[in-house]
Specification:
Low-confidence stretches: 101-109, 231-239
Distance between the termini: 50 Å
Structural class: alpha/beta
Bound molecules: zinc ion
Strand content: 15-25%
Strand order of the largest sheet: 1-2-8-7-3-4
Number of domains: 1
Order of helices and strands: HHEEHHEHHEEHEHEHE
Number of helices: 9
Number of strands: 8
Mean pLDDT: 85
């Protein structure tokens, strides 16, 4: 019902840019460039949580980029999934050329370009998805996969993670509190377990997808969970580290590149 109302109000209200409020377009050229205009860059929070995979981001989480992500996630501006997915696809291309995370053993110089990429969205809480009327991360993972296919890179979305238990709202928690809050919170779905047993969930092909990196604790937990099992201790990602992409990261997480 909520989405029907959003679509109706979209017909009745004047369209404005989700990034800057400018007239007539859902996303103006300048805000689109803020999102997807720079090249994807490696990001790392400081301190980095144990087991955090290699992460690439498209843009710092501030100003127009922040407004666009929130409009898509919380206000159901679903047309923004296209530009957000394109920004994410750029990060996937960049990270696919990089070796895996902490436990990488065999990938060396990155993936051969023919290997299909497995995009694994970080799941939202079911209650959050219900309240929003959509799953924003999964939606932008799908548009990113479509963009990758369009440009000749085979990629598929594998929604094989789910929340194992409820977690407290992360906002307002420090890095260590977030780690404790999230430890053991994610697990593989039954389908994901089957893929893991069959050897189809190849971690050198897995790219975790999230919208935002702040402390990195969510991605570290997701990397642990794609390794299977229910351990709650922070561990490096099992069996040849996966990698990760986010649309945006805290501005300070980009400082890794300034050394
Ligand atoms: Zn704008």
């Amino acid at each position: 019902m909520r989405n029907v109302w959003q679509e109706l109000s979209g017909l009745l209200l004047p369209v404005t840019c989700a990034g800057c409020g400018g007239p007539r377009v859902e996303l103006c050229a300048a805000c689109g460039a803020a999102l997807d205009g720079g090249s994807a860059r490696r990001v790392c929070p400081s301190p980095a949580p144990p087991g955090l995979p290699t992460v690439y981001a498209a843009a710092p989480y501030e100003n127009a980029v922040r407004a666009v992500l929130l409009a898509h996630k919380e206000r159901g501006a679903l047309g923004l999934a296209g530009p957000l997915g394109r920004a994410l696809a750029g990060c996937v291309r960049a990270v696919a050329g990089q070796p895996g995370g902490a436990a990488a053993v065999s990938v060396g110089a990155g993936l051969p370009s023919a290997a299909p990429l497995l995009l694994v969205p970080v799941p939202s809480a079911r209650s959050a998805t219900a309240a929003r009327g959509h799953d924003p991360v999964r939606r932008i993972a799908v548009t990113a996969a479509r963009e990758l296919w369009r440009t000749g890179r085979e990629a598929r979305v594998l929604p094989v993670l789910r929340q194992r238990r409820a977690v407290a709202d992360q906002s307002g928690l420090g890095a260590r509190q977030r780690r404790v809050n999230l430890a053991g919170a994610l697990e593989l779905t039954a389908a994901g377990e089957r893929l893991l047993r069959r050897g189809a969930l190849r971690h050198d092909r897995v790219i975790l997808v999230d919208d935002l990196l702040t402390t990195g604790s969510t991605l570290a937990e997701a990397a642990r969970a794609v390794g299977g099992g229910h351990g709650t201790a922070p561990e490096p990602p099992a069996r040849g580290g996966c990698r990760a992409v986010v649309v945006a990261a805290s501005p300070s997480a980009f400082e890794i590149n300034r050394n």
